[in-house]
């Protein structure tokens, strides 16, 4: 059997309801070895519920959940994972060294303490009580706890919330290093630049479903919108009347256009304005792509409601 | 096991039994350490029974001979043993369900039950400490105890904490966060009073005397009295009641934990 073909984590048609609320609604997700998948989506999209299913914290109401081909409620499956949850209040009177030792004791082949501490940059905090650390330091300790068991799969739920830029960059570097060693990572984040910097693939969720799955570039391409900026003598109203132009704004004396057909619009601009300066064409950022995708999903789901 | 061969690093995947045992020990060690370092926990559970016994059992009972001091040694030992069970389990479970620590532990490959077992050992240790403290104080009042009697009282305390661990655990699954201590005191203090731990039962109204066997602390008090040589009841009945009480509340708590986390 080819081990690399077996996903390290998989959801198939997973459904999870809390009373009347359907948090996960037929979600399919597969995470492969050595891959970093970012789960994106607005609050309440079902990201944390999906992770809860994969960690075996909840049982799905329908569908399959597998961790290394096993039921995640089995401890043998979970011995291969490391976990950093969005919020966890660890015992404040225990020292960082003691927390690391305790967590490492759950695993068959943990890292040595010094290695975990180095990877998460907490060497200087080892003898301090957890409760005396700053929010950012506590986050780094939680990261150290996640990786101390030498996991094959890391769950990182909003790992860089509350970190300053430097600490965030250091954490990203550590995550890249782990992925380089063959560790898979499932990351949820609110920061799109984080997904952009780290992810091989992104999965965008709304209303408990995946509405897009692919590389970061594919996500941008799928939206296909481009932004044109220039200094022009043309009136904004004139440009807005062109059929290819979706939106016109004037910002700091510059014309800012949004269009799906950048080439046509650029040609027209040059033909109509001999004094055109500082022309820039940009693919829309992940943030715009993301906003557009989720807006489409909102619209289509409200259409469905109206139709029903 | 067949399924294990599906694992990505098949071959070196099994957790050796020694490491599993190590995980249990590490968990128990952490539980003990974190409470030893938390004065908010250790002070009330040792101070109150110790102070009460010193005032009512040692200083004020001087004129009444050592029998009063002996009687109150059993009562305050029972009173002192209840709190590490109730508070050690109840308060921490209520807080840790709220703060996400329990969720994290459930997601991690912590061996099953290590979390509760660790807390249990911590509560037993704290109970032993309280009983030893009271035994020490009883010597000021010249209560003469044989070594066997002292050991029996210690054993009664260390095992007698378990029904209160179970009750504390159940209450910890009902309340969340900071509400824990208040609710637990509402259970702890009236129960201690109604079981005759503060005033001997014969001094209480008849109705309350008849109601006393409802409370687990009443039964533990009977066992503690017997341990210091003042009991006249058959012990097996009290032991059975406490055992049943423990099992019932562990099952109730386990059911709630499984359902609601």
TrEMBL record, chain B:
Pfam families: ABC2_membrane_3 (PF12698)
Domain ABC transmembrane type-2: start-end pairs: 36-260
Membrane-spanning intervals of the chain: 41-61, 73-95, 116-141, 147-171, 183-201, 235-254
Primary site of residence: membrane
Mode of membrane association: Multi-pass membrane protein
UniProt KW keywords: Membrane, Transmembrane, Transmembrane helix
PANTHER family (alphabetical): NODULATION PROTEIN J
Family: Belongs to the ABC-2 integral membrane protein family.
Protein name per its UniProtKB record: ABC transporter permease
Taxon lineage: Bacteria, Pseudomonadati, Pseudomonadota, Gammaproteobacteria, Lysobacterales
């Amino acid at each position: 059997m080819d081990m690399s073909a077996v996903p390290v984590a998989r959801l198939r048609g997973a459904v999870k309801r809390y009373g009347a609320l359907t948090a996960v609604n037929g979600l399919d997700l597969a995470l492969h070895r050595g891959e970093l998948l970012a789960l994106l989506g607005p609050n309440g999209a079902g990201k944390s519920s999906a992770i809860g299913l994969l960690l075996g914290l909840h049982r799905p109401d329908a569908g399959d959940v597998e961790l290394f081909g096993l039921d995640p409620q089995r401890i043998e499956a979970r011995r291969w994972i490391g976990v950093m949850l969005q919020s966890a209040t660890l015992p404040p009177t225990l020292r960082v060294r003691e927390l690391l030792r305790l967590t490492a004791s759950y695993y068959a082949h943990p890292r040595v303490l010094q290695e975990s501490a180095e990877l998460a940059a907490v060497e200087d905090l080892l003898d301090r009580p957890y409760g005396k650390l700053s929010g950012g330091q506590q986050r780094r300790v939680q990261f150290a706890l996640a990786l101390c068991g030498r996991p094959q799969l890391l769950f990182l739920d909003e790992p860089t919330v509350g970190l300053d830029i430097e600490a965030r960059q250091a954490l990203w570097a550590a995550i890249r290093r782990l992925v380089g060693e063959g560790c898979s990572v499932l990351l949820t984040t609110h920061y799109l630049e984080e997904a952009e910097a780290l992810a091989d693939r992104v999965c965008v969720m709304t209303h408990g479903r995946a509405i897009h799955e692919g590389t970061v570039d594919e996500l941008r391409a799928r939206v296909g919108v481009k932004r044109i900026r220039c200094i022009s003598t043309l009136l904004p109203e004139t440009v807005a009347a062109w059929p290819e132009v979706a939106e016109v704004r004037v910002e700091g004396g510059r014309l800012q256009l949004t269009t799906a057909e950048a080439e046509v619009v650029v040609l027209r601009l040059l033909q109509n304005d001999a004094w055109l300066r500082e022309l820039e064409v940009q693919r829309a950022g992940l943030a715009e792509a993301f906003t557009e995708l989720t807006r489409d999903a909102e619209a289509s789901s409200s259409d469905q409601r109206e139709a029903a | 096991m067949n399924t294990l061969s599906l694992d990505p690093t098949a071959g070196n995947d099994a957790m050796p039994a020694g490491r599993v045992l190590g995980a249990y020990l590490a968990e128990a060690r952490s539980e003990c350490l974190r409470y030893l370092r938390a004065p908010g926990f250790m002070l009330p559970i040792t101070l109150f029974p110790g102070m009460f016994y010193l005032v009512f059992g040692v200083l004020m009972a001087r004129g009444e001979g050592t029998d009063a001091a002996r009687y109150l040694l059993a009562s305050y030992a029972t009173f002192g043993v209840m709190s590490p069970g109730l508070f050690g389990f109840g308060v921490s479970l209520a807080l840790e369900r709220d703060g996400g620590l329990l969720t994290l532990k459930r997601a991690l490959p912590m061996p099953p039950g290590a979390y509760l077992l660790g807390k249990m050992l911590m509560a037993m240790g704290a109970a032993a400490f309280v009983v030893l403290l009271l035994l020490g104080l009883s010597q000021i009042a010249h209560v003469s105890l044989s070594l066997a009697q002292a050991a029996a009282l210690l054993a009664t305390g260390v095992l007698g904490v378990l029904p209160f661990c179970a009750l504390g655990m159940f209450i910890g699954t009902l309340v969340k966060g900071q509400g824990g201590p208040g609710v637990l005191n509402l259970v702890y203090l009236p129960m201690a009073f109604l079981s005759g731990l503060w005033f001997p039962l014969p001094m209480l109204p008849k109705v309350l005397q008849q109601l006393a066997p409802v409370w687990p602390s009443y039964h533990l008090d009977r066992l503690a009295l017997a341990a210091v040589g003042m009991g006249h009841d058959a012990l097996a009945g009290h032991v059975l009641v406490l055992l049943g009480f423990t099992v019932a509340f562990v099952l109730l708590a386990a059911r709630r934990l499984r359902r609601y986390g």
